[in-house]
Design a protein that fits this description.
Blueprint: H1 5-31, H2 33-58, H3 67-80, E1 84-90, E2 93-100, H4 102-110, H5 116-131, E3 138-143, E4 152-157
Length: 158
């Protein structure tokens, strides 16, 4: 079998999204939806923190706020297959709009609540991983595809 690098990346993205969903659904069945959300938020917080640390260690030796953070967001979006998105820096904030998201599609298909709380934990954890555990940003999930909006939107206040 011959598989291109793009195909491997696409398969990795699919596996990443499906594993996250399978883990969440197993937790919800065994321990209830509230416990599943609690653990999911903790998992994404830890994942994003470690990803931020690794990006700094291996690719961004001297990160600069907010430019390096925005670069890291683009890397995160690539990993997660969130290709149809925009990141806008304006008026002391970063606005992230995602029109199509595999995670959001999976959540809608499963008929569970939205991923906003995990999204916020992810963006905040990425910042702490890049700029230190005491680094603090505030992220608000202001629009949601699963609640009828035309895109998901997160506003990060600098």
């Amino acid at each position: 079998m011959q598989v291109s690098e793009k195909d491997i990346l696409d398969l990795s993205r699919l596996a990443f999204v499906r594993l996250d969903g399978a883990w969440f659904m197993a937790m919800a069945r065994e321990y209830g939806i509230d416990a599943a959300w609690k653990m999911d938020v903790e998992a994404w917080k830890q994942f994003s923190y470690v990803m931020g640390k690794n990006l700094v260690k291996d690719h961004l030796s001297d990160p600069v706020w907010p430019e390096s953070y925005i670069d890291a967001l683009h890397m995160l979006f690539k990993v997660m297959g969130m290709d149809n998105r925009e990141v806008i820096q304006e008026d002391g904030k970063i606005v992230i709009r995602v029109v199509e998201c595999e995670m959001q599609k999976a959540i809608a298909k499963a008929g569970i609540a939205d991923c906003g709380i995990a999204t916020i934990a992810t963006y905040e954890g990425l910042g702490r991983g890049m700029f230190g555990k005491d680094f603090s940003i505030k992220a608000d999930h202001t629009k949601n595809l699963n609640q009828g909006a035309e895109y998901c939107e997160v506003v990060i206040h600098l």
